Amino acid sequence: MTIWTVATALLSHWRRRPLQLGALMLGLALATALWSGVQAVNAEARASYARAAAALDQNGLAHLVSPHGRSIPRAAFVRLRRAGWNVSPVLEGEYRFGATRLRVIGIEPLTMPAETQTVDLRNAGDLLSFISPPGTLVVSPDTAEKIRGKTDLALRVSDRMPDGAAFVDIGLAERLLRRDGELTRIVIAENQRPGLEPLGTLAPALSVREPSAQSDVEHLTESFHLNLTAFGFLAFAVGLFIVYSTIGLAFEQRRPTFRTLRCLGVSLSALAVLLLAELVLFALAAAAAGVIIGYLIASLLLPGVAATLEGLYGASVPGTLSLRPEWWLSGFAIAVAGTLVSSTQSLLRLMRVPLLTAAQPQTWGRASQTGRRFQVLAAAALLGLSGALILWADGLQAGFGVLGCLLLGASLLLPAVLSGFLTLMQRASSGALVTWFWADARQQLPGLSLALMALLLALAANVGVGTMVSSFRLTFVGWLDQRLAAELYVAARNEPEADRLRAWLATKVESVLPISSVDVEIRGQPMQIFGVVDDPTYREHWPLIVGLPDVWDRVASGEGVLVNEQFWRRERLRIGDQLDLASDWKSTVVGVYSDYGNPKGQVIAGINALTSRYPEVSRLRYGLRVQPDQVPDLRSSLSDEFGLPPDNIVDQAALKEQSRRIFDRTFLVTGALNIFTLGVAALAMFSSLLTLSEMRLPQLAPVWAMGVTRRDLALLEVLRTLVLWLATFFTALPLGLALAWVLLAVVNVEAFGWRLPMHIFPYEWVRLGLVALAAAVVSIFIPLRRLAGLAPSELLKVFANER
Amino acid sequence: MKSYICDIVVNLAAMVIALRNLSKSYETAEGRLEVLRGINLDLGAGDSVALTGESGSGKSTLLHLVAGLDRPDAGEIVIGGRDISKLDDRGRAAYRRTEVGLVFQQFNLIPSLDVAANIAFHAKLAGRHDPAWENELVERLGVGTLLTRYPEQLSSGQQQRVAIGRTLAARPGLVLADEPTGNLDEANGDAVLDLMLSLSKGTGSTLLMVTHSQRLADRLDRQVHLRSGKIE
């Protein structure tokens, strides 16, 4: 009962200050929402990778593979089975059903270990139809929709199948992929009979790949998820600024209550426990709202994230979200942890400050001289550390370390920078009101500094990420113009049609550029080798980063190969290095080309060099060089002559448009997170201004009493806020550019393997500045209305000793 | 040597004040509270008048009305021949800026400005910034060593001296003081009052001061006692 009485007294503070309570709950809810939203997206994507890996790659089991990624002869499998090994063959490759390219995975259902069976064939009828001609494709519902009507094979839909892949019987896979008697890998079951002859003796040319906890795509997308987590954490930190600021003020305002309660016999520990309980209660309530908002945010973001993952990494993630108890719990945990972290200082102050010390809500938020000095020193140390990491560390974690130190250091330095600027302006001014304006702005700074720091982080992130994306876009569009030099792209449906097509095209176009590739493994990485013919198109258009002067002659003669930038950087290759492309194929690196958007390494070799090693390589696709005005005629001739569907004949403009659309969709999620972070920063500003407006009267009333009208005072308040916003905005520009440089030169290189030139986009800054300005106006609207509408009697209370 | 103060006295037009049938009430939780009920009062130029009375008798409200900080419900406040109760917000602001000087019990210095800037502040607003006059005031007030300090670094007595300096630096025709020594001990209070009286006399200002202290009230030219919103 006593506890309840004390709790009622403590809670009465919030009843009298509903806006303060609202700011606290909203700050906490938004911080939780953005964090848990991002975590939900990450969890969904990772679960999807794990499902896909378990289903498609059987990555829970060991495999036998060929060291160079070449095919394994069926005889090797037969030898192992005869020796008593419980193994199962897999043949996989890419096959086009119309315009839809699928990963076809041929399995042998009778020998496939039960624990990796994605296809349910327990029913005898199902098994029979799966292995009997013409065969069955087991696909996901989405994939079934895409290829329906484009194949004569029977379709069986399975919810357990990831998108973009099809399970077939291995015999059918051999026919589709035209790889009779070949295997891609051999799955080794966990349960084996004892005393078997070792694998090394039975299949000396093959190596064992151990089960992997992390799939290839999970590894590739790690940097993207780290990026998202960093963004989520930034938004969370910005939200916590609001919480810290509100809790700090509420504690200071309640100090007389604390004092009275202590005088009435409430022990310090009981008071602390009650305050802690109050905070946890608020945290749980805000977390419930935050997790719901987070779920909505995640639902909004997930389609964008799915597009990004598809665009950048070829990873398929469903666009819908499942409710996962772990992120509900993590949302609550992070909200409580964030609240406790934000209130630690206030709680410690409560424990340390003597009982009879008077409350000073007016001076709350003013950092002590020592505190300010410590802040500047910490900022300098963090900025120094950031520089040191750039110079001497490498790796993705180091890249994010640079970003973290840079952002935190700059935000800690901001109050000192602004204070210096305001002091300078104050010294340069002479009029009474102008001098007061600058001096007063400087005095408001400590109370606003957290919000301004949050704003700096949000603006810098916007400038940095915006510059990165726009630089990427500009480079990407230029690169596309070079790379997609052929006027028309055509795909035959089968090899006989391709033979006929080549013969027909020989007299109709200026040149025919085959697009043929094989999937291999080079230096332990999944790679593609493309074969190119000797054609001026490549010599004139192909975007090379470095290369020997006679690079294309060397490629055409089979002496050398080109590698893409990501492989070049990852492997730290140099021109002239030897590359083992297959067991009987070594070649020299003669040039490096940029290859944006491709997660995998790639090699370009002469077409003859490729086909002599891989005679079975698919020759279905071609780029055609013709005069641009002949494109429509050629297109209709191709349709008439071969009956090719529209999807199989794509012109350059359509392909570029499609690529640009994918690019823009890819960065949709970044834009959304930018807006969310800026929104939270605006809320932090609003909350701080609202808090300060409650304490402004003692500072404004004397100036009003000396003959400055309320209207002029309100105008000066708007100007003051705008000046601080603008000063923060201008500080955010160099910080944002530094951030962009780190993203382009450090993080992107580590994450994607390519480095982009940095471009400056001042118009985007103007746009951001206007958005920030609008947010500033919105954030000051309520505090300003409150001030402008103040009755003189309210102002008089500041002076009145009695009435 | 003739004091600088004496030189400027001739330039000042001290205010003649006439309050006619002044009344003021406020809405409170318990209903309407009549604070002033038909006040009539005349103050001559250069007068120093003590406004005394019990708590709640309406002293501060009367002072605020004369300062143009608030408007009466009825009646006239004629100062220097003008009824300031008829002025709009901008007009009353101009009146406060140029003609009135206010000294409060809580000092109400501007926390963001140092002592020198605080003293010059009102004079600059009024367009009467005079560094020589301010220097003399600083000397008379004994705050010469405090000019670069901020209000929070001063004692209560020092803050009130600065507040008086700020008021008189603008050379107002009317000085209104609300319990100027209420937050000071007796010795400091006496010293501050001495200064205020001598400086306002020196500048020829009319002084209206609210005080609870009969001892201080006795030192002024006249006393006006308020009881329940009326002059006794």
Brief summary:
With 803 residues, chain A is an alpha+beta fold.
Descriptive overview:
- The complex is a heterodimer of chains A (803) and B (232).
- Chain A folds into four domains: 1-58 and 217-364, no CATH class; 60-211, no CATH class; 367-471 and 653-803, no CATH class; 488-625, no CATH class.
- Helix content of chain A is 61%, strand content 13%.
- Chain A has 27 helices and 20 strands.
- The longest helix of chain A has 52 residues, at 432-483.
- The radius of gyration of chain A is 33 Å and the shape is elongated.
- Chain B starts with a helix and ends with a strand.
- With 232 residues, chain B is α/β, with parallel strands linked by helices.
- In chain B, helix 4 runs parallel beside helix 6 (156-169).
- A six-stranded mixed sheet of chain B has the order 6-7-8-3-9-10, sandwiched between helices. Chain B has a four-stranded antiparallel sheet with strand order 2-1-4-5, covered by helices on one side.
- The interface between A and B is large, with 34 and 45 residues.
Largest sheet, strands/sense/barrel of chain B: 6 strands, mixed
CATH topology of chain B: Rossmann fold
Largest interface, C-beta within 8 A:
A-B, 34 and 45 residues
Report the helical percentage of chain A: 55-70%
In total, how many domains does the architecture of chain B comprise? 1
Shape of chain A: elongated
Instruction: Report the C-alpha radius of gyration of chain B, rounded.
Output: 17 Å
Oligomer: heterodimer
Strands side by side in the biggest sheet of chain B:
6-7-8-3-9-10
Number of helices of chain A: 27
Gyration radius of chain A (Cα, Å) is: 33 Å
Structural class of chain A: alpha+beta
Share of residues in strands of chain B: 25-35%
Largest sheet of chain A: 10 strands, mixed
